[in-house]
Amino acid sequence: YEELQDTAGRHNDDVRNAKHEISELNRHVQKLKAEIEGVKKQCANLKGKIAEAEDQGELALKDAKQKLAELEDALQKTKQEMARQLKEYQQLMNVKLSLDIEIATYRKLLEGEEYRLANDAADAVNI
């Protein structure tokens, strides 16, 4: 009977130790589950931030492309305006050159007339 009591006591201690070990393992499992949930939340949060950053990047890229198109359009218009102004400048320079030639011609005619009048006056005084 004592041997059965000793065996029962040992089994009782083994069962108590097993229950204690199971309890410790359950606490460890609960702790790991909580950590896993925390990591899953962090992962979901990071995925959300990545998606948001991608959206912002796409919007920034779209905006940059639009601004580039606007700048290229403005550059083209400026080039056209510059070509128009250059053509107008060349036309004005041609008009100026024509006027300079005409002024030089009239100046020569005037100088020739003054010389002729001066000679006529000198001849009239000499007579």
UniProtKB/TrEMBL annotation:
Gene giving rise to this polypeptide: LOC113431738
GO CC aspect terms: extracellular space; keratin filament
Signal peptide positions (record): none
GO molecular function, one term: structural constituent of skin epidermis
Species name: Notechis scutatus
Taxonomic lineage: Eukaryota, Metazoa, Chordata, Craniata, Vertebrata
Keywords, ordered alphabetically: Coiled coil, Intermediate filament
Protein name per its UniProtKB record: Keratin, type II cytoskeletal 5-like
Domain called IF rod: residue spans: 1-117
InterPro entries, per database record: IF_conserved, IF_rod_dom, Keratin_II
Coiled-coil regions, chain positions: 1-95
Family: Belongs to the intermediate filament family.
